[in-house]
From TrEMBL, chains A, B:
Domain HTH lacI-type, chain residue ranges per copy: 7-61
Source domain of life: Bacteria
Alphabetic keyword roster: DNA-binding, Repressor, Transcription, Transcription regulation
UniProt-recorded name of the protein: LacI family transcriptional regulator
SMART domains, sorted: HTH_LACI
PANTHER family in alphabetical order: LACI-RELATED TRANSCRIPTIONAL REPRESSOR, RIBOSE OPERON REPRESSOR
One MF annotation (Gene Ontology) recorded for this entry: DNA-binding transcription factor activity
Amino acid sequence: MAKNKKVTSYDVAREAGVSQSAVSRVFRPGLSVSQKTRDKVMTAANRMGYRPNAIARMLITKQSGMVAVIVSSRANVNYPEVLSQVSKQLAAQNKRVLLFTLDDPDGVDELFEQIWTFQVDGVIALAAHFESHRLAQFEEHDIPVVLYNRNVPDSMANTVCCNHELGIKQLITELEKNNPKKYLVLSGPKDSDVANERREIAISLLKQFDVEDVSILYGDYSYQSGRDCLAKWLQKNPAPDAIICSNDTMAIGVIDEARENHNIHIPNDISVVGFDGITSSAWLSYQITTIKQPVEQLVKAAVAMLLERIETPDLPPEARVLTGVLIKGNSVKRP
Amino acid sequence: MAKNKKVTSYDVAREAGVSQSAVSRVFRPGLSVSQKTRDKVMTAANRMGYRPNAIARMLITKQSGMVAVIVSSRANVNYPEVLSQVSKQLAAQNKRVLLFTLDDPDGVDELFEQIWTFQVDGVIALAAHFESHRLAQFEEHDIPVVLYNRNVPDSMANTVCCNHELGIKQLITELEKNNPKKYLVLSGPKDSDVANERREIAISLLKQFDVEDVSILYGDYSYQSGRDCLAKWLQKNPAPDAIICSNDTMAIGVIDEARENHNIHIPNDISVVGFDGITSSAWLSYQITTIKQPVEQLVKAAVAMLLERIETPDLPPEARVLTGVLIKGNSVKRP
DNA sequence: TTAATATTTGCATTCGAAGTCATTATTACG
DNA sequence: CGTAATAATGACTTCGAATGCAAATATTAA
């Protein structure tokens, strides 16, 4: 029926013998239209294949119905799951995801330009680091922002985050059952907020547990860096008793390297823990003891928080911290 | 500077002492504006923090600058990489990604409604199955579509796909070096086009290789289904000599199950091959022989094809088939 | 210097739906 | 049955940038 020609509300109005306003009202929920008019309009609209033009609606209502989701390549952790959850949750609230990937720090300016011009209703940032002046820019433009999996102390930001402190404490408690002497902490990259936080928490908790001998290594969250860090360490040092990895992927690298190239048995020779609870952490070859992030709840919280700020822009900043789940795998020695 | 108040082209025009048209022309590339006017406008614009409103521009130009990317949950394979590539490639062409997730087949109607109302410039579908009347709908609405990783025979669709036939032939050639007697083909789900294609190609190629003894199992592409299928098979049958898995994830499940629960050694007892070349297929514990999909090139091709259709809507349908790379891992016995 | 041409510029209109406001139809009730 | 109150309707304006067109200005040629 509608071939090549876009049908507008005027076309439908003419066809239905009513005014354009009437058509508009029929397609806006909760407006008073008589049943008779509604029927006339709906039949005409269906016959002609009319769909309201979202762009025109955005312009007049100043609500794009879109949420910018910013993903940095470092977000790989639970990326597919998080992103698809975000998309679903937002769809349920009648919002769409406008996706931006941010790899290059130089791209931030360009990214922000895009966000302003697209007049998004809000922003969810996954694992992207923004300096505080960047956050201030959002404020200036009256665009609510929620930082996912981020814990920015002293900040004005809305954040949703898994409880790192509690999680890492549970992991260390597991490890301490064997009274390990020598600890290795395999941190993520120094320029990652999450990595720094996890590392510092681990260090300070180990102090609380009266652990003396702790060394810090720096990887980049990747499998290969897990392998490389362990290999390098073993070149000059004896094997540690326990390794705390800042994420599961590096833990998997550590385990593979230990097994294949150094004939070290996990967990008997070294206990390893990870963080995140990614799918492959549960695979039989690894079975990592780790903290599983409650992705669905985290996303729900983030979306709910964002929608609240869109509704009521002047709510004070808030940080929601959810508890992860300890997965007792097979990578920590049984005492 | 610009606090709370949106700056429009009229504001800038007044400030710069020119007309609104002039402002518009300055921000549209390739239009003739004198250097003097351009400077006046740019200073005013910068001072006031003006950014053109993309929504208004969309309305008048009838180009949203957005491409709908439809992802089904089954697309998990290389999801993060593909999606981030798509986003990057499109960004380079000044287009944004409007993300839609499609899990529930009942959601298709709703999804299509959304796509029409948002007036996207084009659509890229990742691993989502559409019946041909759906594709026809896109045609009616003049929205170009490219199907990623899909091979629809006899269809009017634009597709980009990795050469399954060639890839699987290479894999079988590897396996045949050991003259295996008994083959297992572990297929993906029956309602997945890609799974069906890979399975049928494997079966027909095995015939060409004069292989007699082939059994087909059906998984759902997941790790767990790889494990379950093998376990179930071994309950009633002896171990096969070779297993062709329709993707790497199931191959990993097969390997884990064989090793851990049946004391079967890979590759000495059973040779296993996968498909896709996902990151974890290269992990030391698995080292799967597989075909690595040329993701970057596939995405490049898909984006290029889509842009061509947007530019020139009447181009005939096209299928681009790229060749994957054989990764010789350690999951096939050395003869 | 003037005519002829090319380049800039601004006015007015457009895109398509939504909302304002005044007007008309409908209902309720004394 | 008349009047007040309420519901439904349409004419008109708005959102913000882009563009066809004609007028104004600048540039070049003669």
